[in-house]
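FAQ
Q: What does a multi-component entry look like?
A: The components come first, one per line:
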Amino acid sequence: MHKTYLQEEIIRMSGVNPSKCMRCGKCSASCPAYDEMEYHPHQFVNMVESGDIEPLLKSESLYKCLSCFACIERCPRGVEPAKLVEAVRLTAIRKQGANHMTANDVPALLDDEMPQQAIVSAFRKYSK
Amino acid sequence: MKVSYFPGCTLKNKAKDLDTYAYKSAEALGVTLEEIENWQCCGGVFTTAKNEVATKLSSVRALKEAAEKEQPLVTVCSACHNVIKQTNHAMQNEKEFADKVNRYMANETPYAGEAEVVHYLEMLRDMVGFDAVKEKVVNALTGKKIAAYYGCLLLRPSKVMQMDDAENPTIMEDLIAALGATPVVYAKRNECCGGYIAMESPELAKKNSNEVVENAKAAGAEMIITACPLCRYNLMKNGTDIPVVYFTELLAEALGVKEDTNA
Ligand code: SF4
Ligand code: SF4
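Then the predicted structure of the entire assembly, as tokens:
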């Protein structure tokens, strides 16, 4: 099947081969953000495989992934779904003005105990 | 024994205890931590995309300095450890990425992942030895029931991290036992606390963290230990009524080098 440029780019930057997926759903069953996600890890895999990437690019699911690597660890086929989530997220936020979080948003989200680690991590995931 | 040491941003701010007690305990165990000069923040999370270069340079700088000194690079924070170890793995295994990094940094001798990244817990297990730790214990924590909370970043992805069995780890339980306490094993010890989602969706962090704490308590835990400032924050923030402390603090207490004047 002919692949779109976007699809090839996502596959290249993630290093993931979505056609290895056997659709067992273990990645989504392991995902601690499952309830918050519109598209679940196994759907990222299947939708990238079929080239249905636009809905993923627009989805808030990109910002719900916790980078816990559970889906990477537990996939019996070594598909590594979180790497696709990351590739789609970067494709979204690398566009000019498409940051999900900016420095101005931060003060309102802080409390006195919040470790620096939370802020730098969120920034790395949400903005470019 | 001298090792290179990468503390990271949080250990010099909100998680001073993790750092202070790491130094004190290392000293008591005959290990000198030599802090990397002008280290820069690791960024908190590893970006898995192969074409992300700039976000990984701070890790490569630290790795390169340790390699030049021919010392292992010791980390304490789970997040720093994960980022630096995954970056090193990429430098070893992803040629195109490594080439870009070396050109960007204008490295005369290209760096190819020669440094060894060792978490403080691994240093205790593999370089000092838990038996030697046990011999140095002056305040045995006898009778204390302590649950280890691993979270995500110490263990996963295990193909790269190679610290322990990602689904059935023992390294922190073995430390707890070496300090004379009783390790409490519970199902949620390697599930995610919610991490940085605490900023945007505190409710999700609350749900995840609560499940961890409740599960540990149901198994009989009187205290939880962790290596991660964000895990500690999330567990503390979300209603735990048992203490959550850094493993280095517990170690310092058992080794008799914890002074109340500090941190
Ligand atoms: S890495 Fe993201 S997608 Fe994968 S299990 Fe964790 S939260 Fe879910
Ligand atoms: S765990 Fe792996 S094989 Fe199973 S659905 Fe997820 S990606 Fe596919």
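Q: Is there any commentary attached?
A: Sometimes. For this entry: Chain A has a mean pLDDT of 93.
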